[in-house]
Structures are given as C-alpha cells and as structure tokens.
Amino acid sequence: MTGGIDPTDPTNHKDQSQSGPMIWFQTTFSTFLIKPWVKVAVILLFILYLAVSCYGITTLNKGLAIKKMYPPKSPMYVFYNKEEQYFQNYPYRVQVFQFTSLKSMYIIYLHAKLLYPEKINSGPNYNTIGLFQQNRAKSNQ
Prior knowledge:
Blueprint: H1 20-34, H2 36-58, H3 75-87, H4 102-115, H5 126-140
C-alpha cells in the first residue's frame, strides 16, 4: 500500500489521524471565515490592495541607473560617472566591423543593398561596405 485510507477498514483511526493545525483549521478558522462580516472585510481588503497597487503602478519610475549598483568609491562607479559626463550626447557607440569570412561581408552587403539600392549596383566589395558605413554615420548625426 502507498498510504491513504485502507479500503477494507475505512473506520481505522490510525489511518485517519489528524494533526493539531488541521483540527484548528476545521473547527476554529473555518467557522470564523464563514461569518458575513469576515467575507465583507476580506473583499474590502482586496479592493484596498488593488487600489494601492494601481497607485504604485502610476508612480513607478522607469529605468535603473547602472552606477547605483556599485559603491560610490568603486572604479566602476567612477567609470559610469565619466561615461555619463562625456558620452551622454552620443546615443550610439562606435562599431567596428571585422570581416572574418566572405559570408559576413555578404550579409553587410545585402543590408546595405536593402537600405541604399540606388547607390549600390555592383557586388559586395570593400567600397560597398564603406558606402554603407558612411551613410549610416550621416543618418545618425
């Protein structure tokens, strides 16, 4: 047998022994929960909880400053302060392309061909990639 009530002797009290907390929930707590004023109080508390949650959502601040994750005297905190001070006006970081294969060069070419079809009429080469990077830099300014 794996436990539970023995089907041959369902009135065996050893199989159906209850612990103290279970008896308390069955006798005291359940009778408390059935009262109408307790039901109303639970519903009112839930409505209050919803109202406080909605208020909290409306006053929630977006974002998390990474520098607040570090102690003020740590090198990372100093780094993020300098980055904020000097590079705040530049939304994009410098990106360097290193072509390790013709496949990666061809992907950049297809991307450039999609964005600037009138300027690219030859196959992928380094001039095409340079045109793509120049036009992208102009559009970001």
